[in-house]
Specification:
The chain is about 20% helix and about 25% strand. It is an alpha/beta fold. The protein has a three-stranded mixed sheet, covered by helices on one side. The protein has a three-stranded mixed sheet with strand order 3-4-5, with helices on one face. The structure holds citrulline.
């Protein structure tokens, strides 16, 4: 599968209700204008890499709907409407249905009782990994595997390490054969065939990075991590996401990205 030469992206503008989004630390209330600024800079960075970005309107009834990666999975040959296992996020995918129907020939979906969250799905060239987490249950992961088989994709279920929200809160794809990972994932051996760039403990929160062609969007707070990636010969766009991070989120969560053959 083509991995980094995305052509298109969908994002959703933050709603004012984003300040009530889900988060581990209820005291860390994000500033709405700060989230707006960080989101705007993120969209500008996606566009700088050459992506065509569709910006969807804010949804006040869904505080976390700016994290558009979680309720859907997009692939070159189709998309899947997901069901994140957080009650306040379960129906976000309904809002994406018309948008994805317009953009993809094939749109599949999960059923009742099946929970899977896009933050738990790591697409790699050979295998799509689905992490079990508080947001993705076994029934959801198995159902997703069956749907992905219809796209001819090989899949594997893995355990998301304790203490992180999603699989991709601990790992990102850096090249076709390299992962950027936190220590729990690096040491787990769960991605046996990959080379792993392990982040220093103080910079583990830099792990959720987004590569588009030869550019990587990274959290600006982590200079050593940025240096590690630059050493891989990649161009880094550092982005400030301090308010977004208060919502336990990172860079990949704010967009759906895919390669559209018709360009
Ligand atoms: C949530 O808890 O669902 C949001 N506050 C953050 C979602 C982040 N998404 C992601 O890492 N893929």
């Amino acid at each position: 599968m083509r991995m980094f030469d995305y052509t298109d992206a969908i994002v959703r503008s933050p709603a004012q209700s984003v300040v009530s989004g889900l988060r581990k630390n209820p005291e860390a209330v994000p500033d709405f204008n700060g989230v707006l600024r960080e989101h705007a800079a993120y969209v500008a960075a996606l566009r700088r890499t050459g992506l065509k970005v569709e910006v969807l309107p804010p949804l006040e009834t869904f505080p976390d709907s700016v994290f558009v990666e979680d309720p859907a999975l997009v692939l070159p040959n189709g998309a899947v409407l997901l069901r994140p296992g957080a009650p306040t996020r379960l129906f976000e995918s309904k809002e994406l249905r018309p948008v994805l129907n317009r953009r993809f020939h094939t749109l599949l979906e999960l059923s009742d009782g099946e929970f899977a969250d896009g933050g738990d799905v790591l697409v790699t060239p050979e295998i799509v990994y689905v992490g079990l987490s508080a947001r993705t249950n076994r029934a959801g992961a198995e159902a997703l595997l069956r749907l992905l088989a219809r796209f001819g994709l090989k899949t594997r279920i893995v355990e998301t390490p304790e203490g992180i929200l999603h699989l991709k809160s601990g790992v990102s794809l850096l090249s076709e054969e390299t992962l950027l990972a936190n220590s729990a994932i690096a040491q787990s051996g769960m991605f046996g065939d990959f080379k792993i760039v392990e982040l220093p403990p103080a910079e583990e929160h830099a792990v959720n990075a987004v590569r588009i062609r030869d550019t990587v969007l990274m959290n600006a707070r982590f200079p050593r991590a940025i240096e590690l990636i630059a050493k891989q010969g990649l161009h880094v766009i550092p982005l400030q996401i301090d308010e977004v991070v208060k919502l336990d989120a990172g860079l990949s969560c704010m967009s759906l990205r895919w390669f559209a053959a018709e360009g």
